[in-house]
Structure formats: structure tokens, C-alpha cells
Amino acid sequence: MVAEVRGDYPNETAALQAVADKLDIGSRETLRNWVKQNDIDAGQRPGATTEESAQIKALKKENAELKRANEILKAAAGFFAAELDRPHTRS
Fold it and tell me: 73 partner at 20 to 30 Å CA-CA among 10, 25, 33, 89?
């Protein structure tokens, strides 16, 4: 919608405000961010696409899970190593 009405207004800010008002969006900055992200996704502006951002988020989550698993395994290895070092008495 912003692209369609840009020519009807003296600047992009005015076009963004008109569309934001029409769509009842509280802030034109929200709309500006959406337009910016659309330009990035379309290859018209440099930056991380929506798909790339989602992949990065998923990889960060997986990385955190793997780090937690490694900490658990380290703690378990330390526990069992200590068990092996203790002298065992048989009765």
C-alpha cells in the first residue's frame, strides 16, 4: 500500500502516516519497519531476510540446547569419574 500511494504525498513519511492511519496502526515506525523488511526480502536493500533471520534464530536455539546438553554430560562424566576413583570395600 505504501508503494502505491508514495506518489500522492510529498515524502515517504507522509505516505507512511496516511497508510498507518488507514490501517489503524499505532505507529508509522512500525509500518516503516515492515516496508524496510519487505525491501530487504525483495532484494532491494541489504540486510538479513525474514527467512535468514528465522534460520539464525533456530540455530541459536539449537546451539543453546546443545550447550546445555554438553554441560549435563560434563557433570555426569565428572560424577562417574569420581565414583571410579573411590576405593571400594567389600564386606
Answer: 89
